[in-house]
Write a structure and sequence with these properties.
Layout lengths: L1 H13 L7 H15 L3 E6 L5 H12 L3 E5 L2 H18 L6 E3 L9 H9 L5 H9 L15 H4 L18 H7 L6 E5 H9 L10 E4 L5 H8 L2 E3 L1 H13 L5 H12 L19 H14 L1 H12 L5 H26 L5 E8 L2 E8 L3 H10 L2 E6 L9 H7 L5 E5 L5 H4 E5 L11 H19 L3 E4 L3 H10 L6 E3 L5 H10 L4 E4 L3 H4 L9 E4 L10 H10 L3 H18 L10 E5 L3 H4 L3 H6 L5 E3 L2 H7 L10
Parallel strand pairs: 1-9, 1-10, 2-4, 2-5, 3-4, 5-9, 11-16, 11-17, 12-14, 12-15, 13-14, 15-16
Antiparallel strand pairs: 6-8, 7-8
Helix pairs in contact: 2-3, 3-4, 9-10, 11-12, 11-15, 12-13, 13-15, 14-15, 19-27, 23-24
The structure holds iron/sulfur cluster (SF4).
Iron/sulfur cluster binds next to helix 5 and helix 8.
Length: 620
Amino acid sequence: MKELSADFRRLKKGFPGYENRPQQVEMAEEVFHCLKDKQRLLIEAGTGVGKSFAYLIPAILSEEKTIISTATIALQDQLVSKDLVVLKKILSHDFSFALLKGKNNYLCLKREKEYIEAGESYNRFTDWVSTTATGDKDELPFIPDFWSRICGDSDDCSGRECPFYNDCFYYRHYRALSDTDILVVNHHLLLYDLLSEGKIIPSHDQLIIDEAHQLENVISHVFGTALTRSRVQWLLYRLKGLKIAVEHLFEPMESFFKGRRLSQGIEAQTQAIYPIPGAAISGLEELKRLLALDKVISRLNAEKGAILNAEARDRMETTITTIKSLVRDMDDLIEQGDKERVYYLGWNRGYLEIRSNMVESQAPFEGLLRSYESMILTSATLTAGGDFSYLKERLGIVGFREKVIGSPFDYKKQALLYIDRDLPPPDKEKSESFQQESLKTIEGLVNAARGRALILFTSYQHLNFAARNIRMDYPFKAQGDMPPARLIEWFRETPGSVLLATATFWQGVDIKGEKLSLVVIVKMPFGSPGDPVYDERCRRLKERWFSDLALPSAILLLRQGIGRLIRSTDDRGVVAILDSRLVTSSYGRTIIASLPEMEIVHTVDEVRRFFGGEGATPAS
Ligand code: SF4
């Protein structure tokens, strides 16, 4: 424990701008004990605690190999490009750290050669291929549309058996990581590693999962299956390269994924369709029959014995693995017999995809637990209604120590909570009048704050309506106007600007200072009926669906949204929730009790007074 205090003192001395926070030291002590005693810990650390240093320092001090898993690229970048770099300079302990990404982030030498052999050219790309030392696609200023044909793919990779293994970009990086002390990964990679029985991440003893509130959904996705056009198309290219006659299969494959052979009513749309319509299943059966993959496997098996060339032989062997995996998934999607999954049809860029997702995550989480001696789950939002029950139930967590560390920010002084009492409730029947009337309130709030606002919607439909009809004197943009990272930059750099957004922006925006002074939550972020996984979870919970799922998951997301506002001790601002159910419904009190304590107001005038003026001039 003395070492821990000494390291925080070093941090204070050596890191300009570092603010000493008792909450951070408290969290570090909890993490330190957990790792030292090989325990398991659930720890919520409110916004501003500085939780990354609070788990990184004890992990480094423990001298045990540690995996840190994050949900977002933003946090991964912060850890690898900032926090660990600072700690390496300042701490007296020497340690190594690295980022491990999935194979599909690296150029695969085998597949790249095959791509060239197929007569494909990629002029703008050749320079990079011949000069890159890492093969990491993050070096590229653009991602070519054929990247999926030349990047690594686990099904098509025989690892040590691959003739390119010694020079392979991915494995060169991987081999250098076996002795790394702190290895940063994302939740997807962590779970693919579990699925592959530890073949992806070098063995480590300790696991710290940050942004752990997102773990359940990643488990659901990773333990599911997906049949996509690019997957089948890539296989056809491979078979063509192996001199198997497949030219006649491209058209029916294209036709199936375009949905042309399906009955009317299954046209491209944003909502998932489930159960999967019978026409789609018959189309898939027909496609499987046409592909005749069993025959292809027999032929490859028969031919490969006579092949002496190592590259050609490896290509055949991994093709057989790829086909077996595809056939397994096609059969699963046709039969839809696994009661642990929900099956649905969705659309992506005009092509249909047939997918299955895991409904419950307890079994995979149990597998994760067995793989590490100590485990810590942390996030700014793990509790709903004052305890960890929701997360514990969703992941099947038992026997973890529990700790909540509040935010160092003084929300009572720094923030105001506006709750609208007059708008119609935003439920299905009233949604149109709610959309119309809430627009005026949004305009009033934005004027009161002199722009500087993030408006968070729960649906694209409502977002688009607002973007089309909103009237204000402040520069504004809506999600979709430019890529998310550029949109956030635009917001940061444009004085008095307003950003209308949904989905990822509830969690991904970190803007300190007065540039973001108002966060408007237009509607409580209840899970949407129409999401197959959410609907199935609700169905299984029967009458407990609202109390055990809908309400706590909405509270977590609401707390994430509110967390965008106050990012430092100097920040001031207003959170406005336009959902009048917070004051009219029986559950409204539970929601309000789950939020940081703030003064509550109900009129736009009070918001204007908070900002100290009439609010007509754009802020500079
Ligand atoms: S080992 Fe071979 S197949 Fe696997 S990623 Fe490397 S080059 Fe590609």
